[in-house]
Amino acid sequence: MGAGVSSGGPRRDRRPLADINITPLVDVMLVLLIISMLAAPMLQKGIQLELPEAASATDIRDSQVVVSLDRDGRLRIGDTPVHVDVLESRMKALATSRPKETVFLRADKFLPYGEVLLVMDRIRKAGVTRVALVTVPLDTAAERR
Fold it and tell me: Using one digit for the tens of pLDDT, what is the confidence trace for 74-98?
């Protein structure tokens, strides 16, 4: 046979199909985007507290340690939930490492005074000498109403 003459039937290109189907990838990415859009506001939700009002209240700006006690009596150090025993051990460690540190206690205004006092007492028994109660200025409280 001569050059350019084929022995088979019609000429076929036998190249592999190299196209990638990106539709499933786009579907997965859209689902992940929607989930992250729905979950983000839930993650940024703060601790729900109604603080008591006081005329002498000031903002906490330089605070390193904030202990929060919510309406249900749950404790947090910063944003981390803790058990009462863990609170005491962390406060002991703080009193040892930074004895001049002020611990700010944020408590819901609807909690009985005795419960707030018990938490404050546990912080002081752990060796922390400077404990401050956090309040809301009166003018800010009046604006919310």
Answer: 888 888 888 888 888 888 888 888 8
Q: In what order do the strands lie in the sheet with 102-107?
A: 80-82, 75-77, 65-69, 102-107, 130-133
Would you list the DSSP string of 46-100?
-----PPEETT-----S-SEEEEE-TT--EEETTEEE-HHHHHHHHHHHHHH-TT
Coil vs helix vs strand at 15: coil
**What is the rounded CA–CA span in Å between residue 132 and residue 7?**
96
**C-beta of residue 139 within 8 angstroms of C-beta of residue 58:** no
Length of the chain, please? 145
